[in-house]
Amino acid sequence: MSSLPQAGIFSEGNTQFYYLEYQLQPDAATPDIRRAVRSALAVKGGEPSETVIAFGKDAWDRLNPAWRPEGLRDSSSLSGVDGYSVPSTQRDLLFWIQSHRRDVNMQVVLAIHSFMQTVGVLKLDLAGFQYLDSRDLIGFIDGTANPKEEKALDAALIPEGQTGAGGSFVLSQQWVHDLPAFNTLSQSEQEQVVGRTKPDSIELEGEAMPPTSHVSRTDYKENGKAFKILRRSAPYGTVREHGLYFLAFACELYRFQVLLERMFGASEDGVSDQLIRYSKPVTSSYWFAPSREALLQVCS
């Protein structure tokens, strides 16, 4: 592959995560933005850490007016069934920091913010973590169906020959869980909502799999092509508010839109995902995570 992706997209084994989302100041000069991003990317922690950066459409156009990947756009709100909806809170810059230590992440994000606060306003400041054996706070293993190895590259990266090759389209959403409501369900009822067994994440089969389960609504093929994405989500929160920071990478933005429409009952069949009864998105942004080469060029 001639256009190498940002390595952190595919890194495994880290257990501590941090997410920063910025809105650029309208009067910030483009050279100053480039300098701030370049300095932020150069930040290193006391222990190994990785940072992935992604740009909203307006920020990418501002820093790199020569080209953009086909299909990149701002997120838009989505109205679903029974009053459930997805907001649009499109921001300009996303930093995803990951390591094995919370203190290392804090060291890195404080340094990143020292540069970024000169050109942007911090809109999201969120720490995530691995919960038990990679479970969501609802108790189910997250990302079981993620593609592996070469299939992960195919699902997540814009192919060679296309504009933005080696980069990735990104969807980020902060979901707030209603755990008291979800926990009133029996284990069998919870498994019907998710579409997998709770202890060992085995997919339900046949008549045991409801058409309204999360798996049913997100395991989708169009014209024989599976709409695979690479999920890199992590739980976050406190006693008062907790949930999942959903973070996913795809070779085309269209896949995100279709999956969201299917979850919220906005597709042709009008069926919705029962999981949205127990968790709601409070942020939603589309991004472009450029290849390493393109990132160096846009920051130079």
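^ that was protein a. below is b, sequence first then the tokens
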Amino acid sequence: MADLFDAQDSPKIPDSAPRPLADRLRPQSLKDVIGQGHILEGDGSLAQMLAAGNLGSLVFWGPPGVGKTTIARQLANETDLHFVQISAIFTGIADLKKVFEAAKMRRSNGKGTLLFVDEIHRFNKAQQDGFLPLMEDGTIILVGATTENPSFELNAALLSRAQVLTLKRLEDRDLEQIVQRAEVEMDKPLPLTGEAREMVISMADGDGRALLNLLEQVFGWPDKAGPEVLAKRLSKRAAGYDKSGDSHYNLISALHKSVRGSDPDAALYWLARMLEGGEDLRFIARRVTRMSVEDIGLADPQAQAICLQSWQTYERLGSPEGELALAQAVIYLALAPKSNAAYVAYKAARKSAKSTGSQMPPKHILNAPTRLMKDEGYGADYAYDHDAEDGFSGQNYFPDDMKRPVFYAPKQTGFERDLDKRVSYFANLRAKRQSD
């Protein structure tokens, strides 16, 4: 089955056979590739490799429709390597063995192989490990393509033998170049008004292949169309979003950092992106509540309650009505005073607890329910704070041999300004009690 993907062994398609516009406009050399000049031009990684005649194994990381397959194919052409393309979705162990054996045979005849593996992150660890010996002895130049973060999805051993190159989402000016090339290929202007032309580029959402599929439909229209007709005849491309993949983590990170940065508009935008992508609302509610305790904290103690209430409101109303409650919580958090002092204090206390975990509390704060424990000094000289002046005894509550640390340092923002006054008040009173 793997041999079906061997481009140079497959039967030649007659010129008269129908070909999709995307295939007809596939670049025939690297200089024709649009939007990836940062790796293909000047000091770009690939440009330098080719100039030095030293092409190594690569992993292309980027969104769909930005040229990963095209660049791999042209790399093979420019380095005189036999091009073989497989997909991790459809290729099993038996298929891989056939591909490897063919590459070994080819090498024995003096011909190298560029093996392009689409969706390489879908191979498991054992399958990924299978590439390593052939990469090391030069039987294959591996070029993998993935839309997921290689740091999380690919083995460290494979990553250590390949260079990761990031391919960028196509910008509007790049997509406009593709439109112009399509007009030359079709030998006629795109039958859209200027506003509709911008709209179809926007609908492609940075994906060159998606744009060409849209253009192929538009070129078949008999009359020039405006935005209203375009919207009726074409469905907007769904936003790229994988609820278990990289986009999932990228967007929640963007939402969290927008809230932390006190930008309600950006926070609402990223919330909307997640909602449009079909994200689980309970996941969002949980993360928003986490933001209230991690980034707002005691600067606004009400924030946590508002998040929990919005979560409960969503559970009762469902979508779409309950989504508004989460949006309101996001706006509130973005505009709330920020403090991570409690979060920092908690982490510092946990770290201290790990290093001093065997030390006993001071005996004067231990209960003594038995005579033996009283004889051991448990509870002796305990000062009952309610009976002390100002309701504060100032006794030590840390282990006897532990130097008193300071974990919580309130910030001068929101309600924590008042808490800082209390911390200072008790610190001064403690010093006074201990000096008496």
